[in-house]
Amino acid sequence: MKGNAVVIGGGVGGLAAARALALKGWGVAVRERSPALPATGTALGLWPEALAALDELGVGEKVRSASARVADAGTAGLRTPGGRTLVSMNAGGGLHLISRPALLAVLADGVDLDFGDEVADQRGLAGVDLLVGADGTNSATRRMVFGERYGARTLGAVVWRGTVDGTVGSYGETWAPGAMFGITPAGPDSSNWYACLDAGGTFKPPHRQHLQDVFGSWRSGVAEVLERVDEASILHHELFEIPPLPSYVNGNTALVGDAAHSMAPFLGRGACEALVDGAALGRCLGEAATVAEGLAAYDRLRRAKTQRMAAMSRRMGRLAMMRHGFVARNVALGAAGGVLRLGASLRHR
Ligand SMILES: Cc1cc2nc3c(=O)[nH]c(=O)nc-3n(C[C@H](O)[C@H](O)[C@H](O)COP(=O)(O)OP(=O)(O)OC[C@H]3O[C@@H](n4cnc5c(N)ncnc54)[C@H](O)[C@@H]3O)c2cc1C
């Protein structure tokens, strides 16, 4: 079927949904409160399902050519702050990294997108054939549908992230009690980093000195990255997730991306799932005879899978930063030995 849709939010999920619906012949308008697409941002890891969704949206090749393939950076590792490798990780060659601005620019190309257009009253849009809430972790559309009960809740952790010029000697993650630091390639001549602490509330700037104090003695590229970090480019925020929703649809409204399943970032899957949501929503509505039928199919296809992913991501964060039992964890990881096919095992869930 075809109709007219309004998408609230021009992030990864909203733009993916808009492209997918437009490909099925829908008239789609995206309303985004920001004044323009972001010019800066860190890298997002894209797993094979996300690339398949991008192929379905007709932009897979453009995204591949604007991204770095993790396999090209060699094997990454899980390490201790002292530099001991617990596990060598093989991303299976399927993981691509792309900067968020580059991904959004590709997705936005050709989409009817209004910037500086904040939707203040979601209920006022109830008359459209389809309303897509792609308005992120603090989604007002979700609040309209489910009330305050499913609001974002803190994960009790904060993150700092950014990119630095140049490549780094070793990629991967370093795990310590209550803290972790990750480094990935971000492009042919830049690297992406993120640092996490299990602290409540955010920290005041300057961040660089604080990061040096906490992580500056860590090996395996961490100190090397921190030397190159520019204070002005550091992003810092608390981490949130939302509880599992009873449905991703209600009446003529669908939730996609973080609005539906904002999750801990420890598996790097939130944007991937938002892309898959968008493609699935377009497919389900394109194939259905009515909006209700299409939305029911979308909910069946996406809710259980993404809620499982969110639970795994939360558990991954707890495992990475556990304060008790980490010696046993490290021994167990070491005993897993060889190349842990993390990439392969996570890809197909
Ligand atoms: C530290 C960290 C690392 C991550 N790394 C990865 C990774 O490697 N790979 C990965 O797949 N995911 C990753 N993620 C997750 C990913 O960033 C999110 O899941 C993804 O951006 C969600 O996209 P979205 O479009 O659903 O929401 P958002 O990106 O939040 O977009 C929502 C949009 O809606 C707009 N909006 C909100 N309210 C309104 C309104 N009332 N009117 C108009 N516009 C509105 C906002 O301005 C925004 O542009 C990471 C997240 C974090 C925190």
UniProtKB/TrEMBL annotation:
**From what superkingdom does this record's organism come?**
Bacteria
From which residue to which does any coiled coil extend?
Answer: none
For this UniProt record, the keywords arranged alphabetically read as follows:
Monooxygenase, Oxidoreductase
- InterPro entries annotated for this entry? FAD-bd (IPR002938), FAD-dep_Monooxygenase_BioMet (IPR050493), FAD/NAD-bd_sf (IPR036188)
* Pfam families (UniProt xref): FAD_binding_3
Gene3D superfamilies recorded for this chain? FAD/NAD(P)-binding domain
SUPFAM superfamilies membership: FAD/NAD(P)-binding domain (SSF51905)
Q: Which residues form the FAD-binding domain?
A: 5-69, 129-310
Give the Gene Ontology MF terms in alphabetical order: FAD binding; monooxygenase activity
Q: In its UniProt entry, what is this protein called?
A: FAD-binding domain-containing protein
